[in-house]
Design brief:
Order of helices and strands: EEEEEEEEEE
Strand content: 35-45%
Length: 155
């Protein structure tokens, strides 16, 4: 699609056949501005726009995400909080607060959204948790809020 400056364009996107799978299908719609052709070279800085939009096709059957939380230790002895989506739909974790479950001392706050598609996982470093045995986490997501305690495996 080529558009004139200041113009608007509506785009309709659809699947050619319905989603027959038992899980959500995921796609990306990428909109990219291409550089305008110039008659002559001019010394300037130009910024081009590129937007990547997630698109999800839900099946007829109801699907939900299911996140399994765990704490793992790296080879260097550092702890990492892991969220793995074993459900049949995506989830966007919008914010995360992690603290020592026994002291209520906040160790990690993240407000950077993270998408987890089916079978995907994400990890956050748990710096300062070396002596913590139980981790209290509060997660806000598009599937609802969750508050749970996760064992670190340390006694």
């Amino acid at each position: 699609i080529t558009m004139a400056p200041g113009a608007q364009q509506f785009i309709r996107i659809g699947l050619r056949k319905p989603n027959a799978a038992n899980l959500e299908l995921s796609y990306r719609l990428i909109l990219e501005e291409l550089p305008a052709k110039r008659q002559e070279e001019v010394a300037e800085i130009r910024t081009l726009l590129r937007i990547s939009i997630p698109v999800f096709a839900k099946p007829k059957a109801k699907t939900t995400p299911r996140v399994i939380w765990s704490v793992n230790q790296t080879a260097e002895g550092k702890l990492r909080l892991r969220a793995e989506n074993i459900g049949a739909a995506h989830i966007q974790i919008r914010s995360l607060k992690v603290s020592d479950a026994h002291e209520a001392k906040l160790h990690l706050t993240s407000t950077i959204p993270v998408y987890l598609l089916q079978t995907q996982a994400h990890e956050w470093p748990l710096d300062g948790f070396e002596k913590v045995t139980d981790v209290q986490l509060e997660a806000t997501s598009d599937a609802g809020d969750e508050r749970t305690v996760v064992k670190t495996g340390k006694n």
